[in-house]
Amino acid sequence: MSNKIKVAILGLGNVGQEFAEHLLERIQEGGMPIEIVGVAHRHLDAPVALGFQQNGVPVFEDALEITSLGESVDIIFDLTGNTDTRQGLRERLQQSGNRHSVIAPETFAKLLWCFFDADNTMLETAAGGY
Asked: What is the CATH number of the domain that holds 54?
């Protein structure tokens, strides 16, 4: 059993991309026991999506497909801002019997953002809650 926290990030737009970059920086520089095991972005040909693909991280065009990774994901950061996506994630996790993976909305990502030594971009623009 791995001691790493395995995360997936959904929504790699402006805020999501910056969140992913800061998280990767903290993982690499701080030796954090965190691994990004999947991401979702509407545009598979976007530089951020291609970067993850080149590093062997599965990239999904449909955010709900992240649930296909099953219990190999500890935390799903939903940064899509889309309530239908959030509801779909909950339904798919329930249908699959996955009681392990948790969905972290923007509010939780904002909390982590405070530890990134970054500007307030995410704190000012990201929606919160469900």
From this structure: 3.40.50.720
